């Protein structure tokens, strides 16, 4: 996914025109223009239009080092559909961790060399299509609720190293035509079991010594993690049917093509600027969230220097102009501002402006955002001004 960012000029303008929350009795002080804007900003959203498809107190989750915002977004989209269609109780949540690994497995990631967070980013659409819809079942968050995303990769590396040492032990015995040291083998099997249960915190998995040995003898390291996730999800009551769940429809600002040599080219689709906003509004009006791809950097700062455009800064909102020039470089834009995906779940008049609620996946602590974001942050949920939101969305996916 590729993304665009706020211009320095726009960021400065927003900072200069920040609006304080309205006090009681201030309604009549609104300008006619603001009154019209407020009237047009009707409250819509998944937790308003079609309760309880997305409860207002839906907690923000942290993706930690998983670098899997697309899976966290896809599971929220899936949960909203499942709850709205009365497939599950309103308290049900799909595991983003299970969805992430099912996606990697579906894409054929061996994980032999890739750091987990760097393997196959994907999009909400591809995550839903690979990890949740085709299997016909979603894995409950209860199956893997004790996993700590902040520490998972470190502990996963312990398990990877354990596999490397175990296979080296077997290879050495085979090479030298000798019996495998049973004590060394038992020690490595015990270490692997401890990492799975105590560090990765995948509880209740019954691996006997023979099953664990076979697991460590897997050709690829990914096969170990996939087996662990599949077994955790296969426990009674941990999976729910997703039959009938539709695919997400994506509207993007650019079209990506790959030629015979594998080289990508990008074409801007300016007609989709208005379609993106319509898709978001239509989804919220129907009681569904919308998954947006955008630049993560603008969540962390509103400093004009930090948000300096890599295309002409003298042209506010110049993406359309810049993108049609020979300098258009989507990968460079991505590198500069950081690709990210989050669900948009609600629109309302908030703090004196028409705002949209973004359920980010950076946890419930608002300290990760700069001061201008913190004042509109509620336990990790961010209220973002309408103009700011739609000038930064590069694509949106909706049911």
Describe the protein's architecture and organization.
This protein has 399 residues and is α+β, with helices and mostly antiparallel strands. It folds into 2 domains: 8-90 and 246-398, Cathepsin B, Chain A (Alpha-Beta Complex); 152-236, no CATH class. It is built from 16 helices and 12 strands. The strands form 3 sheets. Strands 1, 4, 7, 8, 9, 10, 11 and 12 form an 8-stranded antiparallel β-sheet that branches. The chain has a two-stranded antiparallel sheet with strand order 2-3. Helix 4 (69-84) packs across helix 6 and helix 5 crosses helix 6 (124-132). The longest helix has 24 residues, at 152-175. It is elongated. Residues 1-25 and 304-327 have low confidence and may be disordered.
Describe what is shown at a glance.
The chain is an alpha+beta fold and 399 residues long. The protein has helices at residues 8-16, 32-40, 46-49, 69-84, 96-106, 124-132, 152-175, 182-199, 209-216, 221-233, 272-285, 297-300, 319-323, 330-337, 371-374, 386-390, and strands at 44-45, 137-139, 239-241, 249-252, 254-258, 264-268, 290-295, 339-350, 353-359, 377-378, 381-385, 393-398.
């Amino acid at each position: 996914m590729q993304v665009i960012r706020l211009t320095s000029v726009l960021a400065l303008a927003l900072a200069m025109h920040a609006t304080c929350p309205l006090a009681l009795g201030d309604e009549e002080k609104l300008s006619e223009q603001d009154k019209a804007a407020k009237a047009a900003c009707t409250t819509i959203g998944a937790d308003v239009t079609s309760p309880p498809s997305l409860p207002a107190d839906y907690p923000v989750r942290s993706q930690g080092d998983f670098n899997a915002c697309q899976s966290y977004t896809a599971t929220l989209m899936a949960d909203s559909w499942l709850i709205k269609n009365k497939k599950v109780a309103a308290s049900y949540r799909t595991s983003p961790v299970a969805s992430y690994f099912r996606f990697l497995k579906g894409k054929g990631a061996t994980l032999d060399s890739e750091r987990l967070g760097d393997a196959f980013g994907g999009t909400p659409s591809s995550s839903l299509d690979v990890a949740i819809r085709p299997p016909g079942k979603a894995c409950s968050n209860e199956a893997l609720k004790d996993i700590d995303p902040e520490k998972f990769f470190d502990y996963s590396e312990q398990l990877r190293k354990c596999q490397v040492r175990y296979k080296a032990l077997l290879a050495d015995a085979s090479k030298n035509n000798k019996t495998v040291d049973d004590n060394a083998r038992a020690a490595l099997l015990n270490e692997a079991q401890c990492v799975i249960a105590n560090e990765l915190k995948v509880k209740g998995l019954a691996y006997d010594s023979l099953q664990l040995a076979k697991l460590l003898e897997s050709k690829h390291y990914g096969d170990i993690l996939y087996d662990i996730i599949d077994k955790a999800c296969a426990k009674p009551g941990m999976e729910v049917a997703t039959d009938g769940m539709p695919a997400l429809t994506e509207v993007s600002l650019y079209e990506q093509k790959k030629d015979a040599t594998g080289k990508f080219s990008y074409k801007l689709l300016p007609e989709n600027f208005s379609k993106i906003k319509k898709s978001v509004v239509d989804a919220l009006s129907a009681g569904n969230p919308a998954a947006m791809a955008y630049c993560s950097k603008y969540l962390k700062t509103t400093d004009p220097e930090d948000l300096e455009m890599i295309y002409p800064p003298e042209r506010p909102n110049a993406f359309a102009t810049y993108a049609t020039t020979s300098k258009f470089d989507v990968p460079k834009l991505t590198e500069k501002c950081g690709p990210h995906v989050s669900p948009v779940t609600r629109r309302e008049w908030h703090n004196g402006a028409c705002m949209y609620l973004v359920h980010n996946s950076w946890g419930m602590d608002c300290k990760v955002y700069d001061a201008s974001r913190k004042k509109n942050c509620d336990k990790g949920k961010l209220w973002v001004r309408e103009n700011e939101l739609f000038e930064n969305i590069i694509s949106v996916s909706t049911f």
